[in-house]
Write a structure and sequence with these properties.
The complex is a heterodimer. By secondary structure, chain A is mostly helical. Helices cover about 70% and strands about 0% of the residues of chain A. By secondary structure, chain B is mostly helical. A 3-stranded antiparallel beta sheet of chain B has the order 2-1-3, with no helix packed on it. Classes of the chains: A mainly alpha, B mainly alpha. At the A-B interface, helix 2 and helix 4 of A face helix 1, helix 2, helix 3, helix 4 and helix 6 of B.
Chain lengths: ~130, ~280
């Protein structure tokens, strides 16, 4: 039992991302309202971003900006001193793309609302069949 | 449907939780993601590009193609929103609301009715009626210049501190959206029109791709900023730093214009007449 709790606690970042991803996936699949589906998509994207950022962390590592300046002195750069910059770069662009997809998704939702007068999925289906 | 969805979500979460046992511990310096190429970036970024912020160096130099097409993605998102929602309605087809400023009386002008002449006594207001909001307008007028200065600082100082084109562009776009929220959409569009936002959207992508093409003309590979050294009169390593700055400015312009045009189109339902 003690080992199990230790295993969970030492990897809690993964558990948080799994819970967020499950919430987002559930909202995308089950919710009937289109805006709630879009919110679910955003929660899922946030889970992925959290996963990448937490993978990039290093114990005793500082943020990935090389210490510089007139008083910083010269010392060799060791990779273990700085956290991994690559996931940060990937997620920086992923956040912007998330905003862009959110914009397009909201535009589609507005268009659907203008056409059918509702955002409820079942209602839209019945109105399409008419 | 709810139960099926719940079972699928549980299965998915169970699989991910099962895979967690193979993942590295939190903060492990020897995790697989930190082993291969990232160590090279950390140890050589300053020597290669003279940019201390490794994220900026990787974003605009080592992974320049990725960022260029990322910029193209948000550009095409703005274009997609424009095509989905933008509608051009004739000016006189809707009823409009005007407020007589000295008395506070609101007039509704029917479609085709005679509009009051442009003067200081009448102002156009949105159909969702809004009261006078002197405090909000004044406070936002005081805030906006400082927000814009900060946005420019974040773009220009992205080499040495956290920041860069994406973040600074979003801050600049947010300042203009704040103006549109605190005043109204029409007065914002009269300052920063739809054509200007569309021009800036494409100008940023053009600056980025044009910098890359300039490197080809100077005899290097696409986006190999070291070739710009002969134009700038500096050594190739600081030419990379300057090339990154040019590219970040292009990214900032595109991101700002995309944020603003997305807000214009989404908040007004494509009419660009009455916003939030």
């Amino acid at each position: 039992m003690h080992d199990l709790i230790l295993a969970i606690m030492s990897k809690y970042n993964y558990w948080i991302y799994i819970v967020l991803l499950m919430i987002g996936l559930y909202a995308m699949m089950v919710k009937k309202n289109l805006v709630k589906k879009i919110i679910g998509m955003n929660i899922l994207q946030t889970a992925i971003i959290l996963f990448y950022i937490s993978v990039s962390a290093k114990k005793d590592g500082t943020l990935p900006i090389i210490i510089h300046g007139p008083h910083a002195g010269h010392h060799p750069v060791r990779a273990a001193d700085y956290i991994n910059p690559l996931p940060h770069v990937l997620m920086l662009t992923a956040i912007v793309v998330a905003v862009a997809t959110l914009g397009v998704a909201l535009a589609l939702a507005i268009k659907v609302y203008q056409q059918y007068g509702t955002l409820d999925e079942d209602e839209i289906h019945t109105r399409i069949r008419k | 449907m709810k139960i099926i969805g719940f079972i699928i979500v549980l299965l998915c979460g169970g699989l991910l939780a099962y895979a967690t046992s193979d993942f590295p511990y939190w903060g492990d310096p020897a995790s697989p993601a930190s082993m291969h190429v990232s160590a090279y970036y950390i140890e050589n970024a300053v020597a290669d590009t003279s940019v201390p912020n490794i994220v900026t160096a990787v974003l605009a130099d080592y992974r320049g193609y990725d960022t260029m097409f990322e910029t193209a993605v948000i550009f095409s998102a703005a274009i997609a929103c424009f095509f989905l929602l933008r509608i051009f309605t004739p000016e006189s087809s809707q009823s409009k609301l005007y407020r007589h400023i000295p008395t506070g009386i609101t007039l509704r002008i029917a479609p085709g009715g005679k509009l009051p002449e442009k003067s200081d006594t009448f102002e156009r207001i949105d159909s969702s009626w809004v009261p006078h909001d002197l405090i909000i307008k004044t406070a936002c007028r005081l805030f906006i210049p400082f927000i814009q200065i900060f946005g420019l600082y974040v773009i220009a100082h992205g080499h040495h501190s956290p920041g860069g084109g994406f973040q600074g562009g979003v801050i600049l776009g947010a300042s203009i959206i704040l103006f549109a929220v605190s005043n109204d959409l029409r007065s914002t569009i009269s300052r920063m029109g739809e054509k200007i936002t569309a021009f800036l959207c494409s100008a940023g992508v053009f600056i980025y791709a044009g910098t890359g093409a300039l490197c080809i003309l100077l005899g290097a590979n696409f986006l190999d900023y070291g070739a710009l050294a002969s134009l700038m009169g500096v050594d190739p390593v600081s030419a990379r730093s300057h090339g990154i700055l040019i590219v970040e400015i292009g990214v900032g312009i595109t991101v700002m214009a995309v944020m603003v045009s997305l807000y214009y189109i989404l908040s007004s339902g494509g009419q660009l007449d009455e916003g939030l």
